[in-house]
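Hi support team,

I've been running sequence recovery on a batch of backbones for a student project. Most finish fine, but this one hangs at about 90% for roughly twenty minutes before it completes. I'm not sure whether the input is malformed or the queue is just slow. I've pasted the structure tokens below so you can try to reproduce it. Let me know if you need the job ID as well.

Thanks,
M.K.
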């Protein structure tokens, strides 16, 4: 174990650092220790059915990190998919340490290969460790890809290194679990304090809110390191005139960040003009952006100013710029380089003074490779990129966002701020949020309507995919237990456990018997009874 990394990690934990900062340090320590190309932390959802990527870092050039696709742990039969390596680690609590996955039989590496396509990696060696608390409860995994790559000697990890990584994984698992409990307690205390304050005079309006962080727009909520980093970048670039490219998944708040850039600049008193480049066909978008002269096309009865003219002296925000047609990209490039526009149907160019801020949720590098986006425009836009983190990478901001959205909705409707039950908060903290902040707001709007006025928002007021509830009211208790009588159900689980332990023991019956503390004869009888066989192609131990 690298002593310096351990010391820094211990400092962060004792100082009560944000979960994101601790995860980042653990990833860095894992990379330093293993010399790997990539390390990631995946967290389990509330009901233990899917994993989502919470933190990731790589060494060297990688085109794009995977966007956080969930890893489904259960098949259609609601039994663990033990052929998926991550599902196997979560289900059994054991560590996988493969030196060459092409030579491993019995596991399905389709997810790993799919992520290779996005990240530009070729995974050979793969190590997955469980993040375990309370001795046997797995809350996530630590995944290491291609250990030894920095020394150009990709291979499985030594037993000593695996033990060191397991120690590291245990520390971070306990810290993350404690942080989750702390956030739950803080949330409950806030609710309790708020009700105490409102109890004497429920008719009185709530006390004025605290002032937001200086210069922030009202809706830009968050104190986690990723969002603080993005805000610091805005502070560095806002007062210049360089183009800014805001990148982030759908629902991360790109338009709000663009408005924040404008309001933090010396153009704050000038227009802030927004145009979604995916909302209009090419001909209409050109006219909308650059204007047209009378008679330029059918219906052009008057000369019209474009948005570039309206934004003169201010900021022009081009949302979803990655979807802009190629022909228009050349005109935007001219606007960036020369500060000139030409209206549709005109032969004259006009000077305008606008600051361009672009935003996209797609991989522009891939669009360039496909010939769908101009490389020169990309380089002009990408002078100062700002990457907005997805919500799953800043979980400590979720309680703050929940509080903000519930308070804002209550203030708008003139109702009391609803209380959020602890199990509902826990479910919201564990959800992966593919739709990010926008999805969280929609979930809370729905839950507020589902809950009775004056009563808490409960777990069953959340969407079924989050709360685990069934649409059929006769199925009130969601269950992973298969159909059948007790003997059949027990047999299914027994078969699952035996197959998992056989895989762990590399299909060595004696070792599997030792792990399960039964005789070798018992293992043989169970394998025959449940028709469990070694996968084709695996060498016999």
């Amino acid at each position: 174990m690298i002593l310096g990394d351990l010391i820094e990690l211990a400092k962060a934990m004792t100082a009560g650092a944000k979960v994101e900062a601790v995860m980042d340090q653990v990833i860095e320590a894992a990379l330093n220790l293993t010399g790997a190309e990539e390390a990631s932390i995946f967290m389990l959802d509330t009901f233990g059915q899917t994993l989502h990527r919470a933190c990731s870092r790589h060494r060297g050039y990688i085109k794009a990190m995977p966007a956080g696709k969930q890893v489904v742990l259960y098949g259609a039969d609601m039994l663990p998919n033990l052929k998926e390596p991550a599902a196997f680690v979560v289900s059994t609590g054991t560590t996988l340490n493969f030196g060459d996955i092409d030579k491993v039989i019995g596991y399905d590496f389709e997810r790993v290969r799919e992520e290779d396509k996005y990240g530009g990696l070729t995974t050979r060696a793969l190590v997955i460790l469980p993040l375990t608390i309370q001795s046997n409860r797995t809350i996530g995994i630590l995944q290491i890809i291609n250990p030894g790559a920095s020394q150009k000697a990709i291979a499985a990890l030594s037993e000593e290194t695996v033990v060191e990584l397991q120690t590291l994984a245990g520390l971070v698992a306990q810290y993350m679990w404690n942080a989750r409990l702390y956030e739950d307690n803080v949330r409950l205390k806030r609710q309790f304090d708020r009700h105490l304050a409102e109890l004497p005079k429920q008719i009185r309006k709530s006390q004025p809110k605290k002032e937001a962080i200086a210069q922030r727009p009202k809706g830009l909520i968050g104190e986690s390191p990723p969002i603080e980093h993005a805000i610091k970048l805005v502070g560095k670039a806002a007062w210049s005139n360089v183009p800014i490219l805001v990148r982030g998944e759908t629902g991360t708040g790109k338009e709000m960040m663009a408005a924040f850039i404008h309001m933090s600049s010396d153009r704050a008193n000038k227009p802030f003009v927004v145009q979604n480049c995916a909302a209009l066909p090419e001909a209409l978008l050109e006219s909308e952006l650059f204007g047209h002269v009378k008679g330029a096309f059918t219906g052009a009865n008057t000369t019209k100013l474009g948005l570039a003219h309206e934004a003169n002296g201010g900021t022009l925000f081009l949302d979803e710029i990655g979807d802009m047609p190629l022909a228009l990209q050349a005109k935007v490039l001219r606007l960036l380089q020369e500060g000139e526009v030409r209206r549709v149907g005109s032969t004259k160019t006009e000077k305008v003074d606008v600051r361009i801020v672009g935003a996209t949720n797609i991989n522009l590098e891939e669009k360039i490779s496909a010939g769908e986006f101009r490389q020169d425009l990309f380089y002009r836009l990408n002078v100062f990129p700002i990457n907005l983190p997805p919500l799953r990478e800043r979980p400590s901001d979720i309680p703050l966002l929940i509080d903000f959205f519930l308070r804002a909705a209550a203030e708008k409707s003139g109702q009391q701020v609803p209380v959020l039950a602890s199990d509902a908060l826990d479910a919201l903290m564990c959800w992966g949020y593919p739709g990010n902040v926008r999805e969280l707001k929609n979930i809370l709007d729905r839950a507020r309507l589902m809950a009775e006025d004056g009563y808490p928002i409960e777990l069953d007021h959340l969407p079924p995919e989050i709360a685990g509830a069934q649409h059929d009211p006769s199925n009130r208790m969601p269950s992973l237990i298969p159909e059948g009588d007790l003997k059949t159900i027990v047999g299914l689980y027994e078969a699952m456990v035996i197959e998992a332990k056989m895989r762990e023991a590399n299909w060595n019956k004696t070792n599997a018997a030792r792990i399960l503390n039964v005789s070798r004869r018992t293992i043989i009888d169970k394998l025959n009874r449940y028709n469990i066989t070694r996968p084709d192609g695996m060498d016999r131990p």
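--
Follow-up from support: It reproduced on our side and the slowdown came from queue contention, not your input. Confidence is low (pLDDT under 50) at residues 61-67, 203-214, 469-480. No action needed from you.
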